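Check this.
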Amino acid sequence: MPTISVKRDLLFKALGSTYTDDEFQSLCFKFGLELDEVTTEKQMIAKEQGSDHGADASDEIIYRIDIPANRYDLLCLEGLVSGILVFLEKNPPPRYTALLPKSNLHQIIVTRSTQRIRCYVVGAILRDITINQDSYKSLIDLQDKLHQNICRKRSLVAIGTHDLDTIQGPFTYDAKPPKNISFKPLNQQKVYTGEQIMDLYANHAQLKQYLPIIKDSPVYPIIYDSNGVVLSLPPIINGDHSKITLNTKNVLIECTATDLTKANIVLDTLICMFSQYCKEKYTAEKVEVIYPDRTRFQYPNLSYRNEEISPEKATGYIGIRETPNNVAQLLSKMCLKTKVEDDRLIVEIPPTRHDVIHPCDIYEDIAIAYGYNNIVKTLPKGLTIAEQFPLNKLSDQLREEVAHAGFTEALTFSLCSREDISEKLRLGIKDVPAVHISNPKTLEFQVARTTLLPGLLKTLAANKKMPLPQKLFEISDVVLRDCTAEVGARNERRICAINCNKFAGFEIIHGLLDRIMQLLEVPWSTAKDSNGYYLRAADDPTYFPQRCAEIVVFGEVIGKMGVIHPTVISNFDLSLPCSAMEINIEPML
């Protein structure tokens, strides 16, 4: 959940009212927000950088407010004030309009080479804008918040804002080799090439995290005007030539992206928040984007759309009784202008509310405007007795009994590296039905685990100093790729146990298996009898040759047990022999 910092006096001035801290906290709660902290700039700096810093900072009171992650329209002072004033019914919801220019329509021409790196761009112009130091800082802060939130640290969308009067259209969005790019970056004194910019910001506190997005690409995205003046090198840095100052009157906003939908959301948010400073309020000028195939699009859209909901269904979900007219009034307080037609509610979704994608999002706004504390607590109409999910009940019963057998339960990560489930177990990754994470944050979390064994082996490796024998178990889900499943994968509940000692102790694992089967009332049988369980020899690279067996229950293989192969032991940084068992417990239900 993002947190914004706003100056209290500036906030109260914009709201046209003053509040005590408790009163404002109550107002935030009613609006669905939370006043997280009341502090000062000096205290914030001292907390972040140490007590020796912040001596020159201001003592002005600052409110730190927690904002829901999907409410991009509240991530700055302008949006927060507008939302609260509409909520308090002091102002009507603003009406945003995208205008065609009176003279030439500015264009951004996209070259084919951008398809190799960041293929989309959108843009807009704010005309006759008047900003001061506070509104300028708010614009920069909003860009940072959007970059960290919906833009996914600029990997999906990168924002650039420019002084339009310092540059000349039409603009070109191109991608060039880094050695062919040269310009003066923002707040720098000399010209750098694309390669030099990577070195320049390699240790920069904020920008270094964005360098890997394009660093290894043979081409870097670049935007320049008709005179060759570089506007920006997205997603890293803007050019110094077109930087915005307090004297800027016309602002060009451009967003390059790998996701066009999110680029439009970001562009709409920026325009809706700061078009109030334009001479013609709540308006923005369109920009035309021309792609290599000569298709043309005009941005921004700033489109409104209608959703139709049933007031009875909405109030029924929430648990309140209100007339359709009252529900419409509640939604209008949340910037969702609503009218009643034939006992149906026609809800107009503005360009600020891209978070509304389902009727349930509208129901939530009704509940917020009504007040959660005003919803009367009631008993359910149907009295039922809850019952534990059978698979979870079986898992809990087995946990207790396996612990009684002398094994210690472990709880390991559901995600692991590709090596953990393949190479370290002497398997090929192509032979493992793994679900791969498309954008893993670390190398340790690349796939969903297909077996519980690596987690227990890593737990042993982290507890080498513990006395022997070490006997661990885990009862959890694994995830297996399954083309027949609706989502392409399925969960499977398994129990895995491992014994580590100076001797492998296969008989200990075998004994645990027999105890589990005894508890499940599955008798020992022969291969000809399908009414119980038996073992049959198996060959698995993870286990020592001729020391591995498949566990067959009711004629179905549910798992394996055996002495772990020495190579696997060493792969997990262990030195003592281990025996292990892993079975699927779902067939036991």
